[in-house]
Design goal:
It is built from five helices and seven strands; from the N terminus they run H-E-E-E-H-H-E-E-E-E-H-H. It is of the alpha/beta class. The protein has one domain. The chain is globular and about 60 Å long. It comes from Photinus pyralis (Common eastern firefly).
């Protein structure tokens, strides 16, 4: 997948604000387990919390359900947060080498704020990565509840993108009976084709 440009991020940010009322959001992130036949002598390496063997597709998705960046091939036993920290996507975001735009104000004459991606509780909280408040912080704080609601709406695009991907490419509805290296290529090809179809829609 080509490296995202600053212009692509800005377009994505404008769409998240327009569609989901979440300013300065450039992408939503999540992981999806792609079920595979357990490779010979793999032990529990690919065994996930759902009780099947898988590799993980980690994806950044824009407001219109297109994949901006993906990392595929991590072992199913690893958590989304752990995969993110070790992935090229996570490292490039940490090092600020993924062309994410400079901070910009949320409203005219406001102070500049960072552009962010949104994820669920599995991801670490960072300056550029927002996650929901835990339920223990929601008791009597209306602002936290509103924030969680808005973040959830914006974040849902990545889950929907995975749903569209699986509906289009039904091969993902069962476990793939090929070597993990080939699974990586199949997933990448399907994500690229998914983007082409979204662009034509």
């Amino acid at each position: 997948m080509p490296k995202p440009t600053e212009e692509l991020w800005k377009t994505s940010s404008a769409r998240f604000n327009q569609q989901w009322n979440f300013p300065n959001c450039v992408a939503a992130i999540d992981g999806k387990h792609i079920n595979i036949q357990c490779p010979f002598n793999a032990g529990s390496t690919y065994y996930n919390y759902k009780g099947s063997h898988s590799i993980v597709l980690m994806a950044l998705v824009d407001a219109d359900y297109k994949f901006i960046a993906i990392n595929v091939g991590s072992y199913g036993r690893n958590s989304d947060g752990g995969i993110f920290e070790k992935s090229d996507i996570g490292k490039m975001l940490d090092q600020r080498t993924l062309n994410v735009p400079a901070d910009s104000p949320l409203e005219p004459n406001g102070s500049p704020q960072p552009h962010v991606i949104v994820g669920d509780e599995a991801f670490p909280l960072k300056k550029y990565l927002l996650r929901p408040y835990s339920k223990s912080h929601l008791q009597e704080n209306e602002a936290h509840k509103i924030y969680n609601y808005r973040l959830s709406r914006a974040r849902r695009v990545v889950e929907n993108a995975f749903g569209i991907l699986v509906a289009r490419w039904r091969v993902f509805r069962r476990h793939l009976e090929v070597q993990p290296e080939l699974v990586d290529k199949i997933v990448l090809a399907c994500c690229c084709l998914h983007n082409m179809l979204c662009a034509d829609a």
